[in-house]
Amino acid sequence: MRAPRPSPEELVEQLLAGDRRALARTLTVLENDAPAAARCMQRLHAHTGRAYILGVTGPPGTGKSTLVNELAKVYRQRDNRVGIVAIDPTSPFTGGAILGDRIRMRDLAGDDGIFIRSMATRGSLGGLARATADVARALDAAGFDLIVVETVGAGQSEVEIARTADTVLVVEAPGLGDEVQAIKAGILEIADVLVVNKADRDGVKHTVRALRAMLDLGVAPRTIVHHGQWMPAVSAPESANAWSPPIVETVATQGTGVGKLVEAIERHRAHLAESGEGARRKRMRIAAELETLLRESLMDRLMQQVGRDGLDGIVERVVAREIDLYAAARLLTGE
Ligand SMILES: Nc1nc2c(ncn2[C@@H]2O[C@H](COP(=O)(O)OP(=O)(O)OP(=O)(O)O)[C@@H](O)[C@H]2O)c(=O)[nH]1
Ligand SMILES: [Mg+2]
User: At what angle do helices 156-164 and 125-141 cross, to 10 degrees?
Assistant: First the structure.
């Protein structure tokens, strides 16, 4: 007979006591079960706020996972516990395999100070962003000092990640012909540090020049733009603009340039602390997440009140030109 399922509260207790299995099960809850996730977060919240979150994004195949592996090794040497969240890794994730690649990550396997999790992008973007933020918070509560979130660059999702991360690395590689794509995707706007990986390849100087030209055009530095309706009363400090994203060349497969990259990350981290930009970003993130949650719960509540039939009825009235859309919305919200 199987043991009874632990409650969300019991799972969190075990997680806080350092149980890795409970951590893994909690992350599954956070991804899949909204009501239980809310119960977990209620217990976890007081234990969060310590970890430093690093977002790593960029076009497919630029070497992000290889780089994350190298970064994790450096931070492990500094006695940091490292949590890695890979969103929608292109390689399949199987049992004990790490980021779907045993060979590259073998240096990290079996290390208690490392925890690796992959997440699928099923469901809505908003849902993924929330689940990612919750997973990062759970790792934070579980005592991981550095949490790395890797996503494959595809536009909107990077912006969502920027809200989760303290520092965002955008990883490019020579010869992708994606310099222009990068601007289109708005990817440079969210970069705090730009990495040109595969610096052993031809065309690295060209890629660096192209990126620098774009930075000089004023695409960056990023300021997190709040897309929602209300802004918290935290305006950007003037000194937030003092940061211009450095460009670091690396050869992740050889570990070359990784030391310089760590330095750049640490400089940005210090900048966030000294300028007040870090605190501002934290508040912006909380406001944005709160807004998303409110949107969902208000919508749920409204739909419960109105019901499927009620909504269909109103749609029919708009179709019949009895009322316009604005009037329909007012009717539904009881304004
Ligand atoms: N030549 C060269 N190859 C590299 C370098 N870094 C990574 N690679 C190779 O590039 C391929 C992709 O590396 P990954 O680390 O999986 O890249 P990724 O960006 O995580 O890929 P996705 O998650 O699929 O977007 C692998 O075959 C790596 O061995 C590098 O600095 N130089
Ligand atoms: Mg990868």
Answer: 30
